[in-house]
Design a protein that fits this description.
Length: 264
């Protein structure tokens, strides 16, 4: 019942169901272990740590074995171009598979999208992705046809995508969907938010909840250690949650929202 590899929406690219991010301090050896174990959506994000850079250099001989994502928060075209070129130079790669335009909560600026297309034409990136914390905006970006992949927030404490995003995805040729903050910044694993009489979720539980939704292609993870990577690998091997487990995670999520003053 393990989670199998998945097609990343209309990109046609096959990826592992769990991604790994550069921003949280995971050691180089653990990154390499993650990719070997099938965490092949590799997110060279905004906080590009030296250890993650080392791992990417070590992984270069296996370049076709994973999907490299380069993120930029640039808000003007020249800055976007500079950001991508600099990221690739740092690791010695000729191109990224995905350019992620980060944190667009009020819609996309045409000049940024034009700069991204120019990078595509130069062969520096293959696909263009966008991330948003605003669910209606994320749904609109997914429906626009302009983006190959959409990153959005989804977890047991923030299930609103089930209402605002997933039902509105294109029925045909939909973009790949990547979720982030699967643990709700660790709040779902904090015993002080767990309802009385309930078990506190682990990171593996949080990832399994996210991946059990059929509209999620990849659950991005932000490990800080080799142990965190192992939790992600274990989540894949455990596979989808049963109805009872999903109901338990939702009960915990409700309490996290109530006690941590979160919005869905």
């Amino acid at each position: 019942m393990r989670f199998d590899d998945r097609r990343l929406g209309r990109t046609g690219v096959t990826v592992g169901p769990l991604g790994i991010s550069a921003s949280y301090g995971v050691p180089a050896a653990a990154v390499e272990r993650a990719v070997e174990a099938g965490m092949t959506y590799v997110y060279w994000g905004s906080m590009r740590t030296p250890a993650f850079a080392d791992a990417l250099r070590h992984l270069a001989p296996n370049r076709e074995g994973f999907t490299l994502v380069v993120q930029s928060y640039a808000r003007v075209g020249p800055a976007l171009t500079w950001s991508v070129e600099r990221a690739l130079r740092r690791i010695g790669y000729e191109h990224a598979d995905v350019l992620l335009l980060g944190f667009w909560n009020t819609g996309m600026r045409p000049r940024i999208l034009a700069a991204a297309r120019a990078l595509q034409r130069r062969g520096l990136v293959n696909f263009v992705a966008v991330s948003s914390h605003n669910r209606p905006v994320a749904a609109a970006l997914a429906a626009s046809g302009e983006f190959d992949i959409v990153h959005l927030r989804y977890n047991a404490a923030h299930p609103g995508a089930e209402r605002d995003c997933f039902p509105h995805l294109p029925a045909v040729n939909r973009p790949g969907i990547v979720s982030f903050t699967g643990t709700s910044w660790g709040q779902l694993m904090n015993p002080k938010y767990t309802p009385a009489g309930e078990r506190t979720p682990t990171a593996s539980d949080c990832y399994r909840f996210v991946l059990s939704h059929p509209d999620v292609d990849v659950c991005a993870t932000g490990p800080a250690s080799a142990v965190h990577v192992q939790h992600a690998i274990e989540a894949r091997e455990m596979g989808p949650m049963q109805d009872e487990e999903l109901a338990w995670m939702r009960r915990v999520g409700v309490e996290v929202r109530r006690r941590a003053w979160l919005k869905q």
